[in-house]
Specification:
Radius of gyration of chain A: 15 Å
Largest interface: A-B, 39 and 34 residues
Oligomer: heterodimer
Number of helices of chain A: 0
Strand order of the largest sheet of chain A: 1-12-3-8-9-10-6-7
Shape of chain B: globular
Order of helices and strands of chain B: EEEEEEEEEEEEE
Helix content of chain A: under 10%
CATH class of chain A: Mainly Beta
Low-confidence stretches of chain A: none
Order of helices and strands of chain A: EEEEEEEEEEEE
Radius of gyration of chain B: 15 Å
Helix content of chain B: under 10%
Mean pLDDT of chain B: 87
Shape of chain A: globular
Distance between the termini of chain B: 11 Å
Strand order of the largest sheet of chain B: 1-13-3-9-10-11-6-7
Largest sheet of chain B: 8 strands, antiparallel
Number of strands of chain B: 13
Number of domains of chain A: 1
Structural class of chain B: mainly beta
Chain lengths: 170, 169
């Protein structure tokens, strides 16, 4: 499998977010993208979220849909932000059982046929939970150039990092 | 190519464990590790488990937390959680519904802030799907060994395979 590293962003000083910004890569040029996140993101009980966009900045529209489930202490729960209940980001780790220490991998693609809108799914781990979910951004995005990992409250701690890969299609 | 194979081990004959041992790779040198197992592990209704450590050996303390969702044949849907102080001495992959064959794909990190390992896996068997995440409450700065073990002393059967990759950053 040909994965090519686009960039790694490492948090040098604790801050409310961590941004990976890079030269735009068209969705049509790759099979899909992969994003790896690792660190302490957000205060306990708050967690973190992410947004995506092109190299000019992430989309801040109220157009992020998300479906997810959580397992913690043997108890499962679902989280749904569907259609009219859109969010301004993917709150993929914004769970009350999240203690902040998280590692995750996100696969990002496009629906192509339906106006080039991004689709993604993820698998994430924290000390007290497993999270698996998917997202759809109801905004046309033909190029990927920025991902912003943001604490719901508190910081993305120093040492945390985020790597972005493109998975080649030929 | 940013997935680099560190090692692949193939079970030469039926045995309780299958071990991948290799030169320590610091977690700070990689984005994450990927561990893949394909084979027949344990007997039906038992399955397997795994432990990680350095090239000197795996961690065997009761510090492994896990939260898992299992589903199968649309009548089984259950969760298993060892979190907080309910620690275990390994990470379980399968459960009482699974057949003995399995294919887990495991992503492994060491938390960039605490140096304590975190993993996440998806696993298919003939009868179940498992989705899991785990935390090891012991610091580990380098990976050098992975051990798969059949539960209740049941075997990892001949020709089963264990692969370890590093994903560079």
């Amino acid at each position: 499998m040909s994965w090519e590293l686009i960039t790694t962003a490492t948090q040098t000083v604790s801050g409310t977010n961590l941004i990976a910004n890079f030269t735009n890569v068209p969705f049509t040029d790759v099979a899909f993208f992969a994003i790896v996140m690792n660190g302490k993101a957000g205060t306990a009980g708050q967690g973190s979220n992410f947004r995506i966009g092109n190299s000019s900045g992430v989309s801040t529209a109220s157009a992020y849909d998300m479906e997810s489930f959580i397992i913690s202490g043997g108890v499962s729960a679902g989280v749904s932000y569907y259609q009219a209940v859109n969010q301004v980001r993917f709150p993929f780790l914004a769970m009350s059982v999240n203690e902040g220490y998280t590692a995750s991998i996100i696969y990002l693609g496009s629906d192509f046929h339906n106006n080039d809108k991004p689709l993604c799914f993820w698998k994430a781990s924290s000390q007290e939970m497993t999270v698996e979910g998917s997202g759809w951004l109801d905004v046309t995005l033909t190029d990927f150039g920025e991902v912003k990992w943001e604490a719901e409250a508190g910081n993305i701690d120093a040492g945390s990092y985020m790597s972005v890969y493109k998975v080649l299609s030929s | 190519m940013t997935w680099e194979l560190i090692t692949q081990v193939t079970q030469p004959s039926d045995a309780i464990t299958l071990t991948a041992n290799f030169t320590d790779v610091p977690f700070t040198d990689v984005s994450c590790f990927v561990i893949s197992f394909q084979g027949t592990d344990g007997i039906a209704s038992q399955g397997s488990q795994f432990q990680i450590g350095t090239s000197s050996g795996v961690i065997t303390t009761s510090d492994y937390d896990i939260n898992t969702l299992y589903t199968g044949d649309s009548s089984h849907f259950s969760t298993v959680g060892y979190s907080g102080r309910v620690n275990d001495s390994n990470w379980d992959i399968n459960n009482s519904w699974t057949t003995a064959n399995s294919f887990p794909m495991i992503y492994l990190w060491s938390n960039a802030v605490t140096d304590k390992p975190q993993m996440s896996f998806q696993c298919g068997t003939e009868t179940t799907y498992a989705s899991s995440a785990g935390w090891l409450d012991t610091s580990l700065t380098a990976l050098g060994e992975v051990v798969m073990t059949g539960v209740s002393s049941n075997n990892i059967l001949q020709d089963s395979r264990l692969q370890v990759y590093k994903v560079t950053r």
